[in-house]
Protein: ABC transporter ATPase
Amino acid sequence: MVTDFKKLPDDSRIWVYQANRKLSDEEVQKIEEQTREFLTQWTAHGTELEAGFEVKYNRFIVIGLNQANASASGCSIDASVRFIQSLEKQFELDLLDKMNVTFYNGPYIAHKSLEDFKKMAKSRSVSPNTVVFNNLVNTKAEYEEHWEVPAKDSWHSRFLA
Structure:
């Protein structure tokens, strides 16, 4: 069952998938349609899952699941990963590689490999105040409060000199 992402409770489980490039408005529209369709059929052991989503900054697909009614099972999580993989293939994207970092570079959002980010930190091209996207958030409350944070307040801080 699809619900408005904004109406999901704060303790809803969150998955953030970052694209390796900015999506066009047309791609976002298609991804939104397909994600809505997937979530209408998403179940765990035959029980409907109450989930919502949003596409942020034409770059991130964020799926939230209200676990009060039913939690995701291994099979339902596998189904969601297969869905994300289908989007990767269809739109020629990388959405599952966790070895990349996305951060603000002035008014723009940059996407770099972890190795390149480490080099940028070493050369001070990024600073402790560089705002990064912490895609390791687990709940909607964490997503809303700790997703866009200065690198010094995230796991990225270990790479800063």
Observations:
- Residues 5-91 form one domain.
